[in-house]
UniProtKB/TrEMBL annotation:
Name the UniProt record assigns to this protein: HEAT repeat domain-containing protein
Database matches in InterPro entries: ARM-like, ARM-type_fold
Length: 151
């Protein structure tokens, strides 16, 4: 039987959630509830739901992370960036490209960590940021990571 939304919210919002234990309690039947919670913009429960979804071994759950990466909500995007390293490569790349579009230095740092050595479209987007990001800190961080000349 699926977990109730109220119970899942309670589990996700404890002071220090143990995500592996939460995932162990969930099944595919709980994914719609997890997705509803993940869509609550600006909440701790939403961020925890996104990260929890990243740990589940179901593409339907992992799509929650990609959806959060595309969200205008900075909390959802940060949660997606934190969980994206748990995604299989095609989803990781989709999430990375969405996250890199916002020029958020903290999120970009998480993206760079998750993708390892960037290639293809992610590398191209990072190079664009290294050349023309609006903030000097973001430009410098990306240029350093990619080994771009700082002249």
């Amino acid at each position: 039987m699926p977990i109730s939304e109220e119970d899942l919210r309670r589990i996700l919002t404890v002071e220090e959630p143990v995500y592996q234990e939460i995932v162990a309690q969930l099944s595919e039947a709980d994914i719609p509830v997890l997705q509803r919670i993940a869509r609550d913009e600006g909440t701790q429960a939403a961020a925890a739901a996104v990260y929890t979804a990243s740990l589940m071994q179901a593409d339907r759950a992992r799509e929650i992370v990609v959806e959060a990466a595309e969200s205008p909500d900075p909390i959802q995007r940060a949660a997606a960036a934190s969980g994206m390293e748990n995604l299989p490569e095609p989803m990781l790349l989709r999430a990375a490209l969405s996250l890199l579009d916002r020029e958020d230095a903290a999120v970009t740092k998480l993206v760079m960590r998750a993708v390892g050595t960037p290639t293809g479209a992610v590398e191209r987007r990072l190079r664009e940021l290294g050349e023309g990001a609006q903030t000097p800190e973001l430009r410098e961080m990306v240029r350093e990571r990619l080994g771009m000349d700082n002249n």
